[in-house]
Amino acid sequence: MLAILAFIVIFHISSITLLFIATIDNAWWVGTNFTVDIWKTCLNSTDACKEIGSNTPYFQAIQTIQATMILATILCCFGLLCFALQLFRLKQGERFVLTGIIQMLSCLCVMIAAAIYTSLHEKFHPDLNDKSATYGYSFILAWIAFVFTFINSIMYLILRKRK
């Protein structure tokens, strides 16, 4: 049982790490001369970064992505704290339902952010017309974090506190 708990904690911490990297790092949309994330646009030729301002097309959608990624990270961190508290407070045989629900909400937030970015990423920066541009590793890490938080929430809902 100790090995299962250790695996779940490591899995949860890796989910938190993926969420932090995906939220902070500048690689959601990458072209030959630029990198874009949910916070700023950086041009490789001049090493200048410009924050995404309110004059950007679909600025409210970008703010939604920012908010849901931050909320997902906070919920995932809170879920780990909740798991630690429930580990010592729950009676034997009870499930970690609250922790599972918190992780499911974190999963939902990541899915919303990544889905909005998937559908509207080309409209966010119409001035960056690079046909060779692709999704960056931060965007991919966001989808991997979605899968990790979903699996983690299912594990919490199934897990019972045993002796």
UniProtKB/TrEMBL annotation:
Q: Which residues form a coiled coil?
A: none
* Pfam families membership: PMP22_Claudin
Which locations, inside or outside the cell, does it occupy? Answer: Apical cell membrane; Cytoplasm, Perinuclear region; Golgi apparatus membrane; Membrane raft
The terms describing its cellular component in GO are: apical plasma membrane; Golgi membrane; membrane raft; nucleus; perinuclear region of cytoplasm
The way this protein sits in the membrane is described as: Multi-pass membrane protein
The protein's matches in InterPro entries, at most eight in alphabetical order, are given as: EMP-2 (IPR003933), PMP-22/EMP/MP20-like (IPR050579), PMP22/EMP/MP20/Claudin (IPR004031), PMP22_EMP_MP20 (IPR004032)
* Main localisation: membrane
Could you list this entry's UniProt keywords, alphabetically sorted.
Cell membrane, Cytoplasm, Golgi apparatus, Membrane, Nucleus, Transmembrane, Transmembrane helix
Q: Which residues cross the membrane?
A: 65-84, 96-117, 137-159
Q: Which family does it belong to?
A: Belongs to the PMP-22/EMP/MP20 family.
How would you summarize the oligomeric state and partners of this protein?
A: Interacts with PTK2; regulates PTK2 activation and localization. Interacts with ITGB3; regulates the levels of the heterodimer ITGA5-ITGB3 integrin surface expression. Interacts with P2RX7 (via C-terminus). Interacts with ITGB1; the interaction may be direct or indirect and ITGB1 has a heterodimer form.
Protein name, UniProt field: Epithelial membrane protein 2
Originating species: Leptobrachium leishanense (Leishan spiny toad)
